[in-house]
Design goal:
alpha/beta, six-stranded parallel beta sheet, 9 helices, 14 strands, 43% helix, globular
Length: 312
């Protein structure tokens, strides 16, 4: 098995490190416009292999020839969000970058599965889908795993419970328009609504929605440990054909009353990519939130489609 990671910045390097330490692929190609950075980080990771005990071979550079015949490709390339920027502010420049790298990836690995991490996530996944020409099952976005991880982390901070006992699912678009599902959140065998007052739970959900922005304000740039680990978790599910149900930005064709977009839904991941979209029985409020989230995603897709031809 072979993995390509496009973008050797903080997120891309973290994806490569996490997957290498899992020791589940034979090769990782780390690609970046700055060949020296990609080669240097690949070498640094290789020099950690004797310490961590993995046999994965990591190669870096700017030549997409090293990505040939990759089974899975993670696209992290693009400008990171800076303080004061929304994910949507990144639309113009990152759509150009994602379109360009997707075409190169598809040329060298026509059978690869693409996981997009670049923001604005849902629409960048749409860009990769349109540019690649791949079946929708082989294109997805990493957002739900990250959003759910943040939610679970905040619940651990609140309750002190083991992270292994906190189960949750968040749907919808990445960021402020996500759809929280406290009804589907449990700690151990107990519903979270029995353990945390509604007002406090609302505060935790709101913090989750603003989770990326909170880190940007603290550091002046986007997060990378959690996003990188989230993408690696999806890679693991695909490589191992584990059939894990994880939240991901997937192409909907009527599920949850939405269609013709990539949006966060529970998916069954394994060989071939998205095997199934799992439909939860949402109540009226949750379904309304999903529709509002879908409307937001469609608005940004519309903005992308309306970019001047020479900029798109």
């Amino acid at each position: 098995m072979k993995l390509t990671v496009v973008g050797a910045g903080n997120v891309g390097a973290t994806v490569a490190e996490c997957v290498a330490r899992m020791d589940i692929v034979q090769n990782i190609a780390l690609i970046d416009i700055n060949a020296g950075v990609a080669k240097g980080k690949a070498l640094d990771l290789m020099e950690s292999a004797p310490i961590h005990g993995f046999d994965t071979v990591i190669e870096g550079g700017d030549d997409y020839a090293i990505t040939k015949d990759s089974d899975v490709t993670v696209i992290t390339a693009g400008l990171p969000r800076k303080d004061g920027m929304t994910r949507d502010d990144l639309l113009k420049v990152n759509s150009q970058i994602v379109a360009s790298v997707t075409n190169k990836v598809a040329e060298h690995s026509p059978n690869t599965i693409i996981i997009v991490v670049s923001n604005p996530l849902d629409v960048m996944t749409y860009v990769a889908y349109m540019e690649s020409g791949f079946p929708s099952q082989r294109v997805m976005g990493m957002a739900g795993v990250l959003d759910t991880a943040r939610y679970r982390a905040f619940l651990k901070m609140e309750t002190g419970a083991s992270i292994r006992d906190i189960n949750a699912m968040l749907l919808g678009g990445h960021g402020d328009s996500m759809t929280p599902l406290p009804r589907f959140t449990t700690i151990g065998s107990q519903p979270v609504t029995d353990l945390i007052e509604a007002s406090r739970l609302d505060e935790i959900i709101e913090r989750t929605k603003k989770g990326g922005g909170e880190i940007v304000k603290l550091m002046g740039t986007s997060a990378w440990y959690a996003p990188g680990a989230g993408a690696a978790e999806m890679v693991e599910a695909i490589v191992k054909d584990s059939n894990r149900v994880l939240p991901a930005a997937a192409w909907v064709t009527g599920q949850y009353g939405l269609e013709d977009m990539f949006i966060g839904v529970p998916v069954r991941l394994g060989k071939g990519g998205v095997k199934e979209i799992v439909e939860l029985d949402l109540n009226d409020k949750e379904q309304s939130d999903m529709k509002a989230s879908g409307d937001h995603v469609l608005d940004v897709i519309g903005a992308y489609k309306n970019l001047p031809k020479d900029d798109a």
